[in-house]
Amino acid sequence: MSTDPQIHRAREVLLNAQSVSVLTGAGISAESGIPTFRDAGGIWENFDPEQVATPEAFARDPGFVWKWYADRMQQFRSSSPNRGHQSLAALEDRISEFRLVTQNIDNLHQLAGSRRITELHGNIWRTRCLGCGRKATLSEVPSDLPPKCSECGNMLRPDVVWFGEALETENIQQAEAACHAEVFIVAGTSGEVWPAAGFVHQARSHGAFVIEVNTQRTVLSDVTNMSLMGPCGEVLPQIIR
User: Fold this and answer.
1) What's the CATH architecture for 1-34+81-121+167-241?
2) Which residues contact 189 (CB under 8 A, 6 or more apart)?
């Protein structure tokens, strides 16, 4: 666990900041009971992403892919934001220039009250029509699979970024703009997924004070100004008052 002097220094930095950006990864949601994808015991340990998370898999069997995502949605709906999510929402309320960039698709940041969010990998509760392109938010787990668009009748797909797909240009631009903040917090991410990991390097190169929060050191630890070791749900509330 991080020492008191480190916590005190992080608080001081945040109190004096006019602009703050945050990058979150699977680690913060793991504390809410949502499995990570790549860690031991993670989702990809039991599922081949080539079968459920590629455009080719969806084209081959959209019903099978949708059933997999519907199962994840059932799992996600039983999870609630933890104190890490809630602390970031509270931080946003008092920082005039704030941007939360997340790699997570679970919607927990929104449920915690965060508003200025860039979802790099999409949102499992949102759909995109393959015909008209319309995006819509789901209030319930769809039962008729694959679901159809209420506007044009074409098939819907989950509005998430699959393997082999590029991130949306607008989201990349928002994330790059976030790298110009005075303080950049990277929480619950291993730093092994690009281009997200590259935003930490960009923030540091732009002069941001970079604070890492994680349960263990990562490949990003040597890039940051400060690494605070511990769960996001414990460390973030300590530094965000």
Assistant:
1) 3-Layer(aba) Sandwich (3.40)
2) 23, 24, 25, 26, 27, 103, 196, 197, 214, 218, 220
